[in-house]
Amino acid sequence: MKTVEAEIGIKKDNRKAVVDMLKQLLADEFILYTKYRNAHWNIEGHDFHTKHVFFEEEYGKLEVTVDEVAERIRMLGFYSPGSLQQFLELSQLKENGPDQNDSISFMKVLLEDHQDIITFIRTSIGENAEAHNDEGTADFITGILQQHEEMAWMLRASVKSFK
Ligand SMILES: [Fe+2]
Question: What is the helix (H) or strand (E) element at residue 90, kind and residue range?
Answer without folding.
Answer: helix 84-90
